[in-house]
Amino acid sequence: MAGSLWDRDLAAKQLRPQLWRYLSGAARIYQGEAVRPELSLSRSDLVRIFATHLALAETTQSALAAAHTLLDQMPSSAALQHIELPGEVRGQVDWPRSHERRVVTGDPTLFVCSPPERRYDTPLGRLIHLALRCITRLSDLSSLPARGQVGSVVHETSDQARRLLLHPKLSKVRRVDARSLRHTDDLVSRRPLAKDLVDLVHQYVAGIVEGDTDELRRLLERQFLAPDDDSRLFELQVGFDLLTALQTCGFAIDPPLPLLPGGKAPFALVRKNGGQGSIYWQRPAWVLAPDLSQSGAWWRTLDDNNLPKQPLRPDFVVDLPAINRRFIVEVKLTSLAEGSPDRDGLRDAIAYLADADDVFREYEPPHAIVVAWNSTATNGNPLGVIRVCSQETWRDDLVKMLSFAAIRRAE
Would you kindly state where each structural domain of the chain is located, as residue ranges? Predict the structure, then answer.
């Protein structure tokens, strides 16, 4: 029987309520229907994700365009200054001061003049300067490298603002604090394009300075990011399914949730009956026993052969002390027409378990779940060490396994 086809856009759309956590320079940008996610973030993660999405937002591009146009149109104010010029006259001559300075300096050719100076340190000039400074900071605040679709756009947006800040008209404009921007209605009424700059500054203050999650939600209603790699997107689909299955079995997810990829941070922390469990994405199984990491078969073999030490990384490592379960989840998207995803997953799972036997030995099986796209495997041994499932059956199998483990634990 023919299996179902992978539909990337459908998967991204279905995962949109959870994908607000995903932040990568190599991500793909999606626009779409409004979804208001339930946000749970640390302040530092909120700043990173807000800065990224603000840099990607159409409102920021509009603010850059407005700044460019307004710089060309920006009026100046005239002010008189007093300067001393030997043998040269500019503007009106102050004869009394000229005679006085000639006596003091002994220079009969000295003139004290008052030429008009064109100044751009006006309310409009300060607004343009402030908005551009806010945009220049977004790339650094995002902590994304300047590569990939998202990273390149974020850095180019900040670079555009830096180039505009070099405009001669802004060279002597005073800096003002973003939180002190007030009384802009009259300016906007005379220069409607200035509203894009005012809105940008208000967004920056709300999200970056004040950490307003409502402002972040408004950005995430318009766009979200998803992994550019299909296999990575399928991994996240399985990971979010795992969280849903755990909630079905009575586990609560502890806030705050980290951004993804989260480096060394867990994919999620869960809690049940007073005990905390953890789920890791793309981390070695030894993350559950770091002191023993160098005792594994993989590490020893690399060391014996003087090879670089790169750890094995299952897709997910799950630790649930409340029900005495530890297991890995290996995810394979490769279609059956191109290969054998279930057997590929089995091979990898066996390698992970053989390497980290000390991590799982004292826990009840299964110690690994392979989720392979369109797998035809059927499990005939509920106590087998490795269980193979398809994308269609794995959620129900996981709930049954966790429920059975909870019953066994209660006994």
Answer: 27-74+121-226, 77-119, 230-410
